[in-house]
Amino acid sequence: MCLGEDSMNSLEKALKYEFKNAEILKKALTHSSFSKEEGIPRWECNERLEFLGDSVLGLIVTQELYERMLTEKEGKLAKLKSEIVRAESLEIVANDLNLGRHLILGRGEEMCGGRRKKNILADALEAVIGGIFLDGGYQVTRKIVLKLFEQCIDDAFMGKLDTNYKSALQEIMHKRNVRNLKYTIVKEEGKSHNKVFYAAVFARSTVIGEGAGKSKKEAENNAAKAALKKIDD
Predict the structure, then answer these.
(1) pLDDT grade, residue 162 (50/70/90)?
(2) Is 203 helix (H, G, I), strand (E, B) or coil?
(3) Which helix or strand (DSSP H or E) is residue 183 part of?
(4) Is residue 24 a contact partner of residue 131, using CB atoms and an 8 Å limit?
(5) What is the pLDDT of residue 4?
(6) Domain region containing 93
(7) Average pLDDT of 175-204?
(8) End of a domain among 123, 158, 193?
(9) Which residue in 50, 64, 91, 126 is the catalytic one?
(10) Residue 84: enclosing H or E segment and its boundaries?
(11) What angle do CA 189, 190, 196 make, to 5 degrees?
């Protein structure tokens, strides 16, 4: 599928931004499945713009949190950032833009429901953000992103989004040159239908947080939450 002028105009209207270079928008919407099937060089799909957009989005959200939360510690800021830029939040914004209908997909991905896949939508949104940055600069991009993510940011401030503490902890520890965190389920209690899992998170063979939950995932997330609390304290 090729991106028609009507589709481009519709998306630009939703973004409230008109691209000076339409080819950037086309590339931002071109999934790798299309380039593979059509024999187009890999760099002509949206992966490089996605890489750029991920960093631009992270910077914009980080700046907004830094300026709005003047007394919060690093751990709290990192938790909020991870909530706002996670794939689930990007999917919500992408659906608000009806981004899926504008994607340029390969036939196989089209048949597999690619227009509704969370990761494809999230990646495409990051690519579009990267494209706006290249086409219009940082300040223009910041204004658009803050408008698009306004509800997600407000919900994060009000505690309405589930926090991915593991991502937040990973980001902080990465800055401290701790690359490999290890999560271990140390104990299980209860019957199969009502189990409680206990997890520990290790950094350089040292336990830095422990937590419990009804699933292994919840226990690990709570262990990361405990580690972040220690960092803030």
Answers:
(1) low
(2) strand
(3) strand 181-189
(4) yes
(5) 58
(6) 5-158
(7) 90
(8) 158
(9) 126
(10) helix 74-85
(11) 55
Cα–Cα dist 210/5, whole Å:
54
Cα-based distances in Å from 11 to 22, 99, 216: 12, 7, 40
The active-site residue, picked from 54, 91, 109, 220, is: 54
Check which CATH number belongs to the domain holding 15 and give it: 1.10.1520.10
Q: For the residues 102-126, what does the mean pLDDT come to?
A: 93
Do 71 and 132 belong together in one domain? yes
232 among known catalytic residues = no
Rg (the chain; Cα; Å) = 20
Alpha carbon distance 80, 67 (integer Å): 13
If asked whether residues 41 and 106 sit together in one domain, one would say yes
Residue 216 has pLDDT above 70, yes or no: yes
Question: Is 0.85 topped by the overall pTM?
Answer: no
- Three-state DSSP at 188 gives strand
| pLDDT value of position 93 | 94
Q: How far apart are CA 210 and CA 226, in angstroms?
A: 6
pLDDT at 26 over 60: yes
* CATH classification of the domain holding 222: 3.30.160.20
Q: What is the dihedral of CA 131, 137, 143, 144, to 10 degrees?
A: -20
End-to-end distance of the chain based on CA atoms, in angstroms? Answer: 54
233 catalytic residue (yes or no): no
The number of C-alpha atoms within 13 Å of 155 and in the hemisphere containing its C-beta is 14
Q: Is the pLDDT of residue 1 over 60?
A: no
> Residue 20 carries which DSSP code?
S
Q: H helices of 69-215, where?
A: 74-85, 87-96, 107-111, 118-136, 138-148, 150-157, 165-175
Query: What's the mean pLDDT in 17-23?
Result: 95
> Quick one: 63 and 94 in the same domain?
yes
Q: Examine the pLDDT at 67 and tell me if it is beyond 60.
A: yes
